[in-house]
Write a structure and sequence with these properties.
By secondary structure, the chain is α+β, with helices and mostly antiparallel strands. It has two domains: about 10-115 and about 265-290, 3-Layer(aba) Sandwich (Rossmann fold); about 125-260, Probable inorganic polyphosphate/atp-NAD kinase, domain 2 (Tumour Suppressor Smad4, Sandwich). The chain is built from seven helices and 17 strands. The protein has helices spanning about 20-35, 50-55, 70-80, 105-115, 185-190, 270-280, 285-290; strands at about 10-15, 40-45, 60-65, 85-90, 100, 120-130, 135-140, 145-150, 155-160, 165-170, 175-180, 200-205, 215-220, 225-230, 235-240, 245, 250-265. The strands form three sheets. Strands 7-6-17-14-9-10 form a six-stranded antiparallel β-sheet, covered by helices on one side. The chain has a six-stranded antiparallel β-sheet with strand order 13-12-11-8-15-16, with no helix packed on it. It has a five-stranded parallel β-sheet with strand order 2-1-3-4-5, sandwiched between helices. The mean pLDDT is about 90.
Length: about 290
């Protein structure tokens, strides 16, 4: 548990290995923090197992993730169970989850060491896949759980239950269960509503429903939802964009709010979320780069 006025002294800096410039900047940031008096700064790839183990051993007060939103997701999966705050520095294309642009970090390093920032907690989901009464895998989820069709271009059938009672059955390309954070990711692309990040609700959004309920549903805080696969052609399960897993008819995906939370470091006031929405909705960075 962090005390009021938390001022980190020990930093882990991780960068995406596919972004060479991010690794270079990680070393520069490490040098700046060390010069300003940080007690310990270690920079390495996000997938460096030696650093990941030191993070799990709770050697650091704060993690800095340099990359895009995918980097932030992977960093979040590592840090949330440890209650380790994360600062995102954007070196990717979009960076909706990131706080600082790559070229702007100098003005924030001294503020980090002096505790001049606020901490923003984000809800996470816990999900597990059950088959024939056995749990096959478990996940902590920052954005979304998706059950959808595989390669065949045909809909699948999914029954959704909330708190043990049937909600509805979908014939659709898929079904998303998203956090408020995930409401601006895949769920947004599927036509779902945008939810403020401080909420703790679960959002259900169908993908191309056919003769089924075609509206998103926001579940009450504390709800438990089950996705029961009822049929279809090669349905798959994907969690936070991880490679998909094959699921079978009668498989159940159990989803609820997780005990863990992910804590973001924020230098901006709470209104940043709506300002960023306006900015990102006006232009698509991926298209802009191709122009």
């Amino acid at each position: 548990m962090r005390e009021p006025g938390f001022s980190p002294r020990s930093f882990a800096i991780v960068s995406h290995p596919a972004l060479p410039e991010a690794a270079v900047e990680a070393q520069k940031i490490a040098a700046v923090l060390s010069a300003l008096g940080a007690a310990q700064v270690v920079a390495a790839s996000l997938y460096d197992e030696g650093l990941r183990q030191r993070i799990r051993d709770k050697e650091f007060d704060l993690l800095i993730a340099i990359g895009g939103d995918g980097t932030m997701l992977r960093a979040g999966h590592l840090c949330a169970p440890l209650d380790l705050p994360v600062l995102g520095i954007n070196a990717g294309r979009f960076g909706f989850l990131m706080e600082v642009d790559l070229g702007d970090y100098n003005e924030f390093t001294s503020r980090l060491l002096s505790g001049q920032f606020r901490l923003e907690d984000r809800m996470m989901l816990q999900a597990h896949l059950e088959r024939n009464g056995q749990v096959l895998d478990r996940w902590q989820v920052l954005n979304e759980v998706v059950v959808c069709r595989g390669k065949p271009v045909r809909p699948i059938q999914i029954e959704a239950c909330v708190d043990g009672s049937p909600l509805t059955s979908y014939v659709a390309d898929g079904l998303i269960a998203a956090t408020p954070t995930g409401s601006t990711a895949y769920a947004l692309a599927a036509g779902g509503p945008i939810m403020p990040p401080e909420l703790r609700n679960i959002l259900l959004v169908p993908l191309a429903p056919h003769l089924s309920v075609d509206r998103a549903v926001i579940l009450a805080e504390g709800s438990h939802v089950d996705f029961i696969v009822r049929g279809g052609y090669d349905p798959v399960l994907s969690v936070d964009g991880h490679p998909p897993l094959d699921v079978l008819s009668d498989d159940i995906i159990h989803i609820s709010a997780a005990d863990a939370r992910l804590t973001f470091v924020r230098f901006q006031d709470a209104g940043y979320f709506y300002r960023n929405l306006t900015k990102y909705m006006k232009q698509n960075p991926a298209i802009e780069k191709q122009a």
